Every structure is written in C-alpha cells, then in structure tokens.
Amino acid sequence: MANIVMFCILAVVILGSAIYCVSTKSIMRAATFLLFVLFGVAGIYFLLDYTFLGAAQISVYAGGITMIYIFAIQLVSKHTLQGITERIRGSKMVAGCLASLVGFAMVLFILLKQQFVSMAIPNAEVPMNLVGDTLMGSEKYQYVLPFEFISLFLLACIIGGIVISRKDK
Fold this sequence. Notes:
Elements: H1 2-23, H2 27-47, H3 51-75, H4 78-81, H5 90-114, H6 116-119, H7 128-136, H8 144-165
Helix pairs in contact: 1-2, 2-3, 3-8
C-alpha cells in the first residue's frame, strides 16, 4: 500500500513538473522543473529497488545533463534572452494537441495489440546482475555502444561549452 501511495506522489510530481517545464516562459524555470522530473523518475527507480538505475539517473541525467543545460543557458548573454517571447497561435495549439492525441492513440494501440499488460507476470523481478550485464555487455541487445556514444556526446558538449565561453581577443 505504501508503494502505491509513493508511486502516486511521484507520478503527480513528475506530471506537474513536466507540464510546468513545457509551459513556463522562463528558461531557467524550465530547466529547474526538468530537474524535478528527472529526480521523480529516479524516485520511481528507487521505489522499484533498482538502485543502480536510480543512482545513474541522478548522476547522469539530473546531475550532468541538467547542469549542461543550465551552463549553456548561463553562457548565452542576458541581452539575447531578454525580450524573447513566443506567441502561441491557435493553429499551433490545435496542431500540438492533435499530435499529442495521435501519439497517445499510437501508444495505446501498441500496448493493446502486443498485450504487454496481460503478459506481465505479477511478482516477476529482474535480477540486478542481469540488468548490469545487459547495460554493459557488447553482444546483441546489449547497450555498451550507446553508453560510449553518450560519453562522446557529453565530451562534445563540454568542449563546445569551453569554446563558447572563451573570450576572443
């Protein structure tokens, strides 16, 4: 019962923060609400007893990626960010809502067609060593290569931030 209550609290925090993240006009507030979303996802991992994934979520995404976003925001001059407002036209709003509904219908169709919910075995747990082997293995359906690409991407972001922050003489 406590797990369900905790999940509901985390779900409300994640959904509320995600809505505020995309609807706020301040870019720093958007980055802050993104941080809350990522912490909420980490909380769900911890709730499921996937401590490795929760710790990776906090260190890589909540810590690293969000800090890169904030660093990039701070590098942009205040004169560039001042006065930037985007007016949402009715046609864009309708198109966005329609795209969201189409995406939701597609996800629902896939879930029902593939019978993911009925195939889920209650009380089935995946051992953590299997998760670790899958994440760090180099065989088929294992994810060490995407991890390497992510590390190269983060390195490129750091180098780009250094180049942007350098003052040209």
